[in-house]
Design brief:
By secondary structure, this protein is α+β, with helices and mostly antiparallel strands. Helix content is 26%, strand content 23%.
Amino acid sequence: MLRVWPGLALPALLSSLFAPTAFAQRHGSGGAWGSGAGEPTLRACACPPSPSVPSPVDATRRVEREAWAMGTRLRLVVEAASASAAAGATEAALREVERLDALLSTWRPDSGLSAVNASAPGRALSAGPELVALLGEAEAWARRTGRAFDPAVGALVDAWGLRGAPRIPAPAELERALQATGRGVLGIDERAGVVVRHAAPGWVDSGGFGKGAALRSAAGVLRGGEIDRVLVELGGQLWASDPACGGWPVAVAHPSRRTEAAAWLRIEGVSVSTSGHGQRPGHLLDPRTGRPTPAWGSVTVVAADPLEADALSTALYVMGPEDGLAWARGRTGTAAMFLVETDEGVRAEWTPALERWLVAPSATPVAGPVTREGAGSPGASAP
């Protein structure tokens, strides 16, 4: 499907249905978990009351909590049989995210992944079954996407100075970094539970899958029991439970005018992740070329598995609007929306699988020309 919208400002009607919310930042490759600047590309709101959509449960059974986790903002909205049950669920989810941070952070020298990245080349390291399985899963997504998504991009992150002062590497330095990028960096033996780092310059960056992994683990402790419905936002990626109210409305922002919505989704039982450049041009690297990807718009992916949504939004953006859309359309069940900025406006294209979640774009009013203001790394906000 395709639509061209010259402008995407929302009128008062939508503002009244979907209350404004606070913002959090989504990371980009080579930054801290929550690095980036500017407004988010996703905003989620509580279901608006209507004759066909029941109101949320009584406020006394609803707990909203914010915390700093994985270097970014974690926000939880839990509605349960009682306030104590909701509070207990938020605490359990926070502890789970903190546990995954201790496993996957590359900013903490004491994390499991930092130990892998600091290990002596050629020496097998017993990294534990969970970390080895996650690294194997990330590598599997790298293979599926033709390495448009690749966790082993640490050498390129260093070459471009993405964790310090950004710079342009010399051709020879870039070539050396490319040689230390990709599938040859890390040997993974899931059966034995060990990994082997093969080259000293190479290391694994969890920025493209770590938050998805943490959301998936948090979702696992938030399902069932006395819990009615849940929305979790971690640094711009969302996971929503299966609520009784018919879904959580999520606004997908204009790629460069971050406070304006380009489209609306209504989600339940899935995760939503968006990738794009925003105000940090150059922070998304193409692992295949070693160079920054062009700033052309954004990609939003909806998937039941948060790690899949995280990895695929990165991969599809790196592929670009044409190749990315072709890849997604060629795989039944991949739900993705591409917002492409053109001189005429924003071109929106999506796969058939996304239509299940998409609020009719024809209901989104058109007003004013598109401007190129630049914006931050994609993000999201909870209600």
